[in-house]
Fold:
Amino acid sequence: MRILGISCFYHDSAACVLEDGVIIAAAQEERFTRVRHDPAFPTNAVRYCLAEAGGLDQGVDAVAFYDKPLLTFHRLLETYLSVAPTGFKQYLEAMPNWMKTRIWVEPEITSQLESLGVGMPDDVYFLSHHESHAASAFFPSPYREAAVLTIDGVGEWDTATLAVGRGRDLQIVQDMQFPHSLGLLYNAFTYFTGFRINSGEYKMMGLAPYGEPRYVDLIRDNLIDIKEDGSFRLDMDYFAYLSDLKMINSKFTDLFGMVPRNVEGPLTQEYRDVAASIQKVTEEIVLRLARHARRKTDMRNLCLAGGVALNCVANGKIVEEGIFDHVWIQPAAGDAGGALGACLAVWHGSLEKPREADDRVDCMQGSLLGPEFSRDQIKAYLDHMGCNYDEIEEDEKWAGAVAEYIANQKVVGLFRGRMEFGPRALGSRSIIADARSKEMQSTVNLKIKYRESFRPFAPACLAEHVSDYFELDQDSPYMLLVSQLRDEFMLPGGGDEETLDLTEWVNRVRSEFPAITHVDGSARVQSVTKEWSPYFHAIISAFKEITDCPMVINTSFNVRGEPIVCTPEDAYKCFRRTEMDTLAIGPFILEKARQPEWVDSDAWREEFTTD
Structure:
């Protein structure tokens, strides 16, 4: 039985195919259209997923949609009425799109499937937004039973839920409702600090350690009333999202005594302190919710999903405090993962199919669920472009050659195997480099990613060595936990940070692995296993043989504002448009200096450097 899962119309639209309960494929639409966070109906992702599952002519037995549009429409109408007439502008902007497409999801699915030559199945299921999130967290997890927290902006009416999962049963037992939302609160501060909502939250989280949380009391005394169980109420007098297209109003800015930062404006100490403050408040709420979940459910395991579950610093705090014995986070925790969750909710919930779990291995297959390109396909493209390359057929020698480039301070674009599902590159569509380098963070940020210099990089570390280097005693395969580097690898110094500008502060060497160590001594760890990432594991193993270092930098294979690369063409263009030294694509290795002249318009740079 084949179930097609779909999420779309807000941001990060995606598709997934489940076959007899097994995840066959999942992908975000943005990877195909090259429109970051593409909200459109995921036609290309659907086409790919069905092709991966045997072809479009095989059809599907059921469709699962990750949201209940009528409930969301009801919330919008009730909200507009509650603030009328001040919400009239927002109402006029939203209604045409809703009346044309968003409320008529089933006819849209029918039309899109017919355009692909796929017949519409008899069974179409509409799952609630947070039911889809909770299913994406629990059902693929390793656990037989667990508490499940979902936290995001809003889905229908819910902004956070607590669920209990046992076997194939998953029941939501508590919820928080709009407009009181941790995700929307974080969005408001993302906007205030000059980053784009729904894409700049990572940036604010990365900026936070450069500030002092001196606005925490101001936030707690004025903006939010936090209860012991993690529930809270926002003072809506400071927020505009009920009645305007903006997140905050003048009362909010007056409270902080500053205006929202311009997108490319200087990151002064005040904005750094704001970022540090809201991050600390977020961590406090998440920890209270986690403690409440443990008390309420008496479960030893916790599963997380929803956009706030991508806050890897807060996730790390849950693990550090030992609230639960084990924590598992859905790698596609945002709306894209809703397509996967909807499929699984139908399979295990609506259809009552059994679920097997061993408390050890999850069912996400390393989240490597996207397209893969064969040796012949890659070669055909490289030959078409007149590329000069070396082909190394033996995997061990290929991995050793890539490791040599990294050890010689080269930045390598890595493209091999199935593309990752979710926002993190995990070694199939990655840019990798030497974690020991003093200059590599600035080099990769400014010359290759074209992004802010303060943003940290993740260490991809052999799973068997993670606890040797980090204060982390559990796996972190999806790069969703932040942990401290062990003290023995930290270097003395510091104490004069307030006298430094941001560039000097970023470039200060604070550990033996400066390229992956954030200013507070933390790192967003990825544990790499041979089982799910054989090529990436082989590269890092070969690098360890050369350098005695079992980790490398891992960042996504893209430039600022562009989706992660999907195809060989995407990879080659990114390689040529940046100062990347080497491209390892399939069994082929390309050196920049040996390639033919590259003729390309500079128009892309303007498009992709404003995020």
